[in-house]
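In response to reviewer comment 3 from the previous cycle, which asked for concrete evidence that the modeling workflow produces usable outputs, we include below a single protein chain processed end to end. The sequence was submitted unchanged, and the resulting structure tokens are shown without manual editing.
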Amino acid sequence: MTTLARGTDTLTRDALTVLQPGFTGTTAPDWLLRRLGEGLASVGLFGRNIASPGQLAELTAQLRAERDDVLVAIDEEGGDVTRLEVRTGSSFPGNHALGAVDDVELTRQVAHELGRRLAACGVNLNWAPSADVNSDPRNPVIGVRSFGADTSLAARHTAAYVTGLQSAGVAACTKHFPGHGDTAVDSHHALPRIDVPADVLTDRELTPFRAAIAAGSRAVMSAHILVPALDPDRPATLSRRILTGLLRGELGYDGLIVTDGMEMRAIAGTYGIERGSVLAVAAGADAICVGGGLADDATVRRLRDALVAAVRTGELPEERLAEAADRVRALARWASTAGRAPEETHGSEIGLHAARRALTVTAAPGLGSPDTFKPLTEPPYVAALTPVANIAVGDETPWGVAAELVHLLPGTVTGSFSAEDGNESEAGAGEGAGRAALEAAGPRRIVAVVRDEHRHPWMASALDTLLAARPDTIVVEMGVPQAAPRGALHIATHGAARVCGRAAAEVITGL
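The workflow returned the following structure tokens.
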């Protein structure tokens, strides 16, 4: 096992052990390797750290050369949120597509294959799955990351995902406890508040987490949300009532509790990351995730020193910090010795297979049925009505059907349109985008691609303009299909992963 650097005292080592920092670059910087030698036990990876599977395997080997039991974590949900395939789009549909199929064995197989690929690259902790019940259709941060708005569906697929992922030797981290679904606020930007009675929370939000715990989820991630029915004063990440009283006590969970990113504005903008990290550990969190935006040695040093100082002043009990560090080390031991399940036969096409099954195809009233739709044989014009990407997804990951249609119908022309000419919350802002798309398309058949039309009035307005002039327009909805289907053909993919675009393009072309 790793030999700690000389001079690293127990308190400092424990403070480093509970941190899960990120870093920049595709190789490990010297400061990170040095901290691993001093007691740091976890590292978080993001899209910026990954160029290819081979490079990722070399990076994780570099980390393990310094500490052989290091936890290498990643935010790889598949679907819209991918780090392994951040530049191409994911080979796996996300939770909402799997929920639309509602085949728990398929969900388990997809999660296993995703876990197998992570394990092959040296990753052993995945900040997934999202167990949130997407009960508010306006939700700007969960949406297709949820299995759906039905509690029992979310619960059974969360359990299947945990089982599949961990059968590949990768620890699951079920999130975002106690449930981030019933909010219209993104905790990356502000502190959401969920005002529902405790009995609703118990029956709805907590049910998928109970299922995850029963399935043996090795980690649970807290949410930066205020839930007054549980704690009127502090968000879940900083709440002893929620983390220790509810998750540990009432639900009987004894695995690792990880915070969501502490640099998110819900915490950083109200408490600051140092103060927030101390309060989180005191409340019952075992690992502090930081590094989505803050990724340097100075941040690690500040958090380490804040935890040490809190112990020395009596604000944070030393035994609580030691307990948290022990849980991190326990998970590291499990991850370094976890047996891998025998290779299964569903293979590399399981993601595309799942994406095809997730499609919902509807024909416009009066235009027959999907069975009578004549696939396109001439290259169309693809008009992507593009919303602002949420931070969890990122704006660097491509989405849509354009690339797949270009491949299947060479000569396909594409364009992207947004609400930049007006206020995104005003319906009229999209009229200009619709006219611009019509002009750019010329005589070509139009394929309009949207993402959560129901949340973006400008997008609905742009579609109104397109369909009024060109009723033969094909509409592809790659978000939550909450708006009524319309267009000569309406294809709901239930997610924007690359394989979702491929499946839609196959329907459009009949290929």
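The first strand starts at residue 19 and ends at 21. We consider this sufficient to address the reviewer's concern, and the full set will be provided in the supplementary archive.
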